[in-house]
Fold these 3 entries.
Entry 1:
Amino acid sequence: MTETGIGTSRSTPATLHDVAREAGVSLATASRSLNGSTRKVNDEYRKRVLDAAARLDYSPNLSAQAVARGTTTTVALLVADIADPYFSSIAAGVVAEADHERLIVTMAATERDPERELELVRTLRGQRPRVMILAGSRPTSDPTEGALGEELAAYERSGGRVVLISRNEFDFRTVIVENTAGAEALARELVGIGYRRFAVITGGEGLRTAADRVEGFRAGLAAAGGTLDDEHVVRAAFTRDGGYDGMRQLIESGLDGIELVFAANDVMAVGALSAVRDAGLTPGTDVAVAGFDDIPTVRDVTPALTTVRVPLEELGRRALRLALGDESASSEGAVRTEVVLRESTPGITR
Amino acid sequence: MTETGIGTSRSTPATLHDVAREAGVSLATASRSLNGSTRKVNDEYRKRVLDAAARLDYSPNLSAQAVARGTTTTVALLVADIADPYFSSIAAGVVAEADHERLIVTMAATERDPERELELVRTLRGQRPRVMILAGSRPTSDPTEGALGEELAAYERSGGRVVLISRNEFDFRTVIVENTAGAEALARELVGIGYRRFAVITGGEGLRTAADRVEGFRAGLAAAGGTLDDEHVVRAAFTRDGGYDGMRQLIESGLDGIELVFAANDVMAVGALSAVRDAGLTPGTDVAVAGFDDIPTVRDVTPALTTVRVPLEELGRRALRLALGDESASSEGAVRTEVVLRESTPGITR
DNA sequence: GTGAATCGAGATAGCGCTTTCCCGCTGATA
DNA sequence: TATCAGCGGGAAAGCGCTATCTCGATTCAC
């Protein structure tokens, strides 16, 4: 095992006490000079403290500050899966905004398990974060149903701020995404370019986001004149492989005249695309595919994927701003989505 | 602004003191029952404390524990860009392993800016994390050169553990990836299936990881009999768009008989693929493309991308284990890579 | 039966900070 | 000259915990 070469003598980090002594001032003065205080401190003294701090390479102990101040500079972020581009984009937004506010982000992954989620909220509460952001909806039929709400409420009662991203299940601040409206608009446009017979691949039982999107899609079809039979709605995991499986399932049952398959999110759609290809068919031509989210990847798959753009980073940004009480963040209403037609839905001339 | 409906009376979280009082025992006993201690505590007392804690919904203040114990349960993770699949996969690994060790991960993004990186290290040091993991290499020609090393060394001196992922620039513990060997193997295999004339798209000036991969690729070609002219090595940003630009550049200068373009990482390769298509050419057929990393996406692009697999999640896991002093993690040597041939390099019969 | 261990609960001294509170000082006011 | 606000530095009381220390009550050996 390699040792660092730059010096080996083990020492504890300099404390404020050390700085004060080195500067020849009191602890109070040192504290006041280093971390803004309402009280002024003589320039001469301040300079001495700053110099001493630099000399000792002092770095304030955030835990100690937290204890003394009774408040932290931490934001806790809970996502289903960090490697999923949907969540990593949101996370990037949260981190960027947090950095801007000089806050520190701690991150955890629920792996889509409600029990884990509850557990994590409990643990993270110990950090006394200023804000807790939860992204990714849960099954509505959830054994821990009330418990999470209780826990979050308790957290808010003790001064924290909860913000949910695109999961309107509790009565907390929420960054609302136009899931329903976006899917509806998508459906209309697809009918507009000639598609009539649709199928849908959606997430597991009762995932709220998925449900909203499917519902919106249905509504759009109903209004515009497309058909979606119930047996053409397949459920699968809310992941790339889920999308693959769902599409394979549809193909195996004969495709049955289906012209376009709408997957409730892009990672599923991308999986679906691959399933189409693996079945020896040509996506776009033999069967069109559309997704939802507009994750970065979908520009680069072939055919490029038609989808509904959700400004994911912005979601993360907004969540934090909302938590911090930024009025504009809340007054902006639901986050706008936008249909993006690409080659995966070339259209049908009838 | 919505208020939570579940109860509004604002209160501070229960403290250990509250629990002790509620249970009718001393602070010390409460502490001992709730958080493991070497000392035993009477079952009767322990139960009373546990009950009281549950009743008050007590959650220990981690900051206070950190101050009292003089050690935290935090891991700090620095990556270049959270939304980049390379880093988000690594992050997922770190978080998973951390969770397993009951540690908490705080995350920050350097955005590939050395100044920012240094700044972040300074800030995060205030957290007194047990471990600091840095992923993503920096330009070798870096204005802050020594400063980062100094800072990290100081951190280690004060008892922390630094682990670098795939950036062998300092003398700290490092998770080494077989960048050179992997690229060399790739080159050999590509020559083996008939390619002779190559081009390379690599990252900005002096990025270590990129440099190693290119060097390995060169060595492989030299050994197996492929050619790579210096004017066919283009530099671009280490991102999807960089890859796109790099490929466009190559195409604009006439492709010049190039049969295969190797991009130093997958996100660049994916961008390159799109550039080929946008130029009206067929990737795989008109020009073959290969990447490095095997990020999840590349299975789903068309043609599927030939690449060198790096077990990214495992990298993150290993980094943490290494930091925690897991012997096996360090004795395993460099992380193995594996060439994965896919349709983007169908081969040439000569 | 006595002294030495042993046990385990409670009191308390910190941990590294912030923030009162106190107090000597200066300068304005009368 | 006496009075009284500021002003600003220092002492010290916490913040919510852990860990050492104290000390009475048991237990045990001989």
Entry 2:
Amino acid sequence: MITIKEIAARLGMSTTTVSNVIHGKTREVSAETIERVQKFLEEVEYVPNINARNLAQGQSKIIGVVLKSLDFRLWHSSNILNDPFVSEMIGGIESAVREAGYYMMLYISDDIAEIIQRISIWNVDGLILFCMMDDDGNRVAAKYHKPMVCIDTYSSEKKDDFVNVGLDDEKSTCEAVNYLIDNGHRKIGFVTDNRVGVDRARFWGYRKALAEAGIEYSDRDFFLLEPAEEAHGRNIEKLCRRARDYTALFCCSDIYAAIMMSALKERGLRVPEDISIIGFDDNLFSRVCTPRLTTVHQDADRKGRVAVQTLIGMITGKAPATKKIRLETRLVIRDSVRKIE
Amino acid sequence: MITIKEIAARLGMSTTTVSNVIHGKTREVSAETIERVQKFLEEVEYVPNINARNLAQGQSKIIGVVLKSLDFRLWHSSNILNDPFVSEMIGGIESAVREAGYYMMLYISDDIAEIIQRISIWNVDGLILFCMMDDDGNRVAAKYHKPMVCIDTYSSEKKDDFVNVGLDDEKSTCEAVNYLIDNGHRKIGFVTDNRVGVDRARFWGYRKALAEAGIEYSDRDFFLLEPAEEAHGRNIEKLCRRARDYTALFCCSDIYAAIMMSALKERGLRVPEDISIIGFDDNLFSRVCTPRLTTVHQDADRKGRVAVQTLIGMITGKAPATKKIRLETRLVIRDSVRKIE
DNA sequence: TGCCGGGATGGAAGCGCTTACATGAATCTG
DNA sequence: CAGATTCATGTAAGCGCTTCCATCCCGGCA
């Protein structure tokens, strides 16, 4: 690896001059010198040592992306990336980070302390935090004074002071459940694997829709997919048995919808003839299951990109117009809901 | 951020001593000094500046993970992470990297030159390369003299000189197709979206199985999912029409299997009654589609972990026992293949 | 007593880069 | 034409850390 010093020596000039042309300070260097240096740089395929640069500049050009996995001890997998929603979002983040000339460092952990430790070491310029757990956003923000934007993070505290991009989960869900109600459904179950964050907001949307339609809610209407691996079989068996009392299920993600649909069909229930199902996310699952899933569409890729753009704005000194950035959703109607006459 | 210098000053000692205790050089420092320093470090929550450290040591502690996306201009998505196989593998890599005390930097790009550029900048200690394109492994290795291990990378050149972890794709596929043949199938199609790398190896396995059973192969048996977005509809329509002449399809991934299954069922064909389907990977898709998919199981998480372990071995000066590391597969029999009497 | 060895500590260079500031030449202004 | 201004380039300090080497002290040994 050739260094700036070496280049300067070979060209018979100072490192300052070389550095200046590298940084495009055209008014400090004569045109011919620029030309000469640039040609030489290409010739030797100069690559800067970014550690040295960062040390000198006190920055890092790294954006830390934190996935708190504990919250996502998913029913179907211990790997948070296996959720297509997450992987698509990461894809969006990665592209946006790259296009902005930054680098992305990915941290997956269930321990916020460990994460902060690892991030601090690299002195990242900013942070994207994806964790559903209440108040982790606040906790990290309090500890770590760098630009940060959260994705899909809710807070139960009054003074949540982090920038957050997400959806209006309550409203989206309310609309979806209203769609079921409009189609004549009255016995509607709510399927999730947790009681926090996004899913809780969706739960309240579900409750709101029921209430507005004068449908009473009972705890039995809450279908909890349990994460414990060994309980899968029994858990799903029990849920399917309970589902027979319902004409429709709202599922907090397409994965759950696909899992439930598959399990119900295996036990002889027909979708949507016997039971209607509605999902959330609109990822590939919703298109390859049979029947194709009616679901709430959101743009995960865009969610990631918006988070990055907002963050980089903050890094470069631009406060976001609003702290709660909300993306649009829309109900995509396919074949998994039937109309009850 | 407190620095070593500051700490040394506050403690009335030299930076050398502080550095020594940080690095656990116990024989260079007296027990009581160690004690004092450690206590102080904790007190002020010292975090090293890794840029400075790396600069001084000429290392980086970063493992670069490169996904070459062009090869994966997937039929169903432009985001390579959306393939559950990939996301699970990344999950494995991430865990292994973290557990080994390294950091992971993820690069997704379709341009090898750009990737090398970005990697060189960070002076990564080693590289994990995931790209199906022939010979990219060789090209990167020739250009970039750092430890590197490829995943699922094939080479058409004689002198492929990179370490590679993958499967015996040919054998795995051969076994799967033999299973179809044993079940009485003679008209067996091969479904993929490309003609390179892993899928080509699988193709030869498929051909081998046919040949051994005395079944003639014709180009018509090759079902190509075309990536071009606008052609999806027509493409899938045509494939489904052609599929009516077959009693079974071998698909190079569970995703393709799920997509084909869904499309076929939409057009009134029953799986497996009218047509049997077999997939590859054994990811979540295979379990939530109906009927549940018979598929070749591989352990993507392990693939990632093995790659990392091998790489770190190389970084620390341990050559791998073999350059071609092959993981096991096994056929998982579920419900998507029927026996023809 | 004088010398040696080793344990504990410190001094200082250097990793590759950026940047504030200095220098000197050329150009401009009234 | 003196002084001010601009342009082009160089000098050197410093970013925070590691590490080679020097120094000093003390006990052991002949």
Entry 3:
Amino acid sequence: MALLDTVVMRGLSSQGALSPEDKALLLGLELSPRQMSASEVLWLESADADLFCVVKEGWAYSYRNLKNGSKQILKFYLPGDIIGIRDFGFTRRLASAVMINEGVIYPFSYQQLFELFGRSNLAVGIMATAIRQQALLSERLIYLGKYAAHEQLAHFLYEIYLRLKRIGAVEDNSFLMPLTQELISDALGMSPVHVSRTFSMLREEGLVIRDRQHVQLPDPEALARLVEFNDSYIDEFLPPTFSELLRATP
Amino acid sequence: MALLDTVVMRGLSSQGALSPEDKALLLGLELSPRQMSASEVLWLESADADLFCVVKEGWAYSYRNLKNGSKQILKFYLPGDIIGIRDFGFTRRLASAVMINEGVIYPFSYQQLFELFGRSNLAVGIMATAIRQQALLSERLIYLGKYAAHEQLAHFLYEIYLRLKRIGAVEDNSFLMPLTQELISDALGMSPVHVSRTFSMLREEGLVIRDRQHVQLPDPEALARLVEFNDSYIDEFLPPTFSELLRATP
DNA sequence: CGCGCCTTTGATGTCGATCAACCTACGTGG
DNA sequence: CCACGTAGGTTGATCGACATCAAAGGCGCG
């Protein structure tokens, strides 16, 4: 359970890239769920790094505290995401991780991952997960660099929209987003007030309707055009050629 | 040759985490060098992704073109770095990659990587490389978010300094940096003029002396303090516990 | 020597930060 | 059931960091 629920593993599986033994190995991990309350801390920056977490229910985020007292959010984690991959290969956490609302997570240790690495196909899956995270980070970086606030926010919302859509959490172009404007401001590196103004701007243009946690994108395509969104880095699981290579390699 | 020259693999090797067979496998890859001229393109955004490149000599960078005509540089690659890991797991390149000055690279295909994945220890090494890149990206993201121009530039220079130092390319606190201010501006998301002004500011404070490609940091520690640099994400190769786990796992 | 690339310096404009007040929804306890 | 407190959100006024435009000063190279 749980690791197979991961976004990437589901993709691998649906492409027939996982052998029965691979699946058995994943299932054999025997992860035990842990109930988390809102704002509960998974770990703090520079704590010892020794495990990952698969998010089953709820949202979480990772962040770093800054000198000036504010913080920079690196990523929001939705159900199906793996938290902690960033720190794999380091002795200590590079960022803190905290739940946003209540939820359920499945922790699993580095040691368990090592066992999976014995099977090359799974190594590829884990690797792909890590790379995908990096892709999300790159996109954010690009938008932080030279884009105006409304473009950043639009891009951010569209990313969330796509990620929720692929786990079936979007209906009628609307979804639940348990984020305060302050959290969003910490992610986009702007002030909370400006996030508010920017939401107003997008509302007036008919692109985003938001009431507390309810968000609706009346015309997602228009939004995508505004931000020139290249969805491949979210929609794609693994390239077709990979599945072939994986089946070919013993 | 070449893959063993990689920063991470050298780290792994020095910790005794690579078995003789691992090393043999790496050496057996038989990579052939390719001479590159300045500004030569490795690949363009959305080209088919099918290989990596180990940088042997010279500098390179990856970037994305933006709507407004400018570009965002994602990363500068120095000798010992691997270019293209970001795209592994995607069918197409997420960013273009270009040489800065002339140099030598060793291309190797995805297929060759798959063969390495059969050996779990090597999978871990590759994985660690990818994660490390992500860490660099995270740091940049943090600095783009809420920091002033002089802090960003200081952070950028100190990162380059550390990376060059670990490959032995720093002498007397000074090094060669074949970057124009325009390239730096594209990386930091600010205007070229402001990069110039910011360099002046750092010079007046006695933190950075720059003449064309020659950069000297009279007091690296002062710079590190200014940016609260946490070098673990560059200095560290693999945590000691990893080496144990790797030796333990068959 | 003279052309181009890189860099520097000055003047002006603007996007978003900051400070501050107010408003709304919601939960708590009297 | 209402009074109140608190967290989140909106709106206005002011200010500053950086962008942009423009011109001029090195430095290397053909």
